[in-house]
Amino acid sequence: MSIDPALAFRGTSLTFANGTRALHDVDLEVRPGEFVSLVGPSGCGKSTMLRLAAGFETATDGSVEVGAGRLGYVFQEATLLPWRTVARNVELPAELAGVPKAERREAARDAIERVGLAAFAKHRPSQLSGGMRMRASIARALTMRPELFLFDEPFGALDEITRQHLNAEVGNLFARDGFAGVFVTHSVPESVFMSTRVVVLRGQPGEVAADLPVPFPFPRDPELRYTAEFAALASEVSAALRGAEQEVPA
Ligand SMILES: Nc1ncnc2c1ncn2[C@@H]1O[C@H](COP(=O)(O)OP(=O)(O)OP(=O)(O)O)[C@@H](O)[C@H]1O
């Protein structure tokens, strides 16, 4: 018996009201237990795909199906409220959803613990590093126990070491919780390290140019990055990306 996809784009196209064609006839399924990275040239529609999955945009042709389930969304910016502590920021989605106080405090405590921020729960965002703010943002999404977890280039502004730590931590969360993940990035090594599949898009309008499985088991050791198998796959993704960037837009 096949499992229903957590997310499916079926012949999906989106043209914005101003005439910009962002996506053209995209077919992509993400199943529970898959972590799919989207890479592609700037403007090829990666963020638009996440916004469609979250219901912030509507397809102009084809459909976007999201399996019945809870959604987590982590943005490029941590988007924390500066006047609230980490704990109060993390409990905000549950608060807005009307979850009773004791229950949402417990969920926030658990999520903060899991991203390694327990000692900073009472700090305000301005007292944290960029990496810690992003951890808080991930914890906030975790409180909703997402079955589909969307990441819009969350680590682009971080230094390389912090980024690699967070790559491994999100990988551990994925290995433990088994959500379906969709992760937008401009980094080829990050896409390979994080994913069970890398989807390369070309634009504009955005279309799927390549879909490459990544066979390494989870949890993944950061040292994986220095193996020959990893280098071979990363160079395959880079080649597909170079091909996608050279194509003349329609
Ligand atoms: N609300 C909007 N109205 C009109 N055009 C839009 C809107 N949002 C995005 N676009 C356009 O749609 C195209 C796809 O944008 P999108 O942000 O999805 O690309 P992206 O691949 O995520 O880019 P980047 O890698 O630079 O973040 C771009 O040409 C962008 O300018």
Automatic annotation (TrEMBL):
Source taxon at top rank: Bacteria
Residues covered by the ABC transporter domain: 7-228
UniProtKB keywords: ATP-binding, Nucleotide-binding, Transport
Sample GO molecular function, one term: ATP binding
InterPro entries: AAA+_ATPase, ABC_transporter-like_ATP-bd, ABC_transporter-like_CS, ABC_transporter_ATP-bind, P-loop_NTPase
PROSITE patterns: ABC_TRANSPORTER_1, ABC_TRANSPORTER_2
UniProt-listed PANTHER family: ALIPHATIC SULFONATES IMPORT ATP-BINDING PROTEIN SSUB (PTHR42788:SF13), TAURINE IMPORT ATP-BINDING PROTEIN-RELATED (PTHR42788)
Protein name per the record: ABC transporter ATP-binding protein
Taxonomic placement: Bacteria, Bacillati, Actinomycetota, Actinomycetes, Glycomycetales
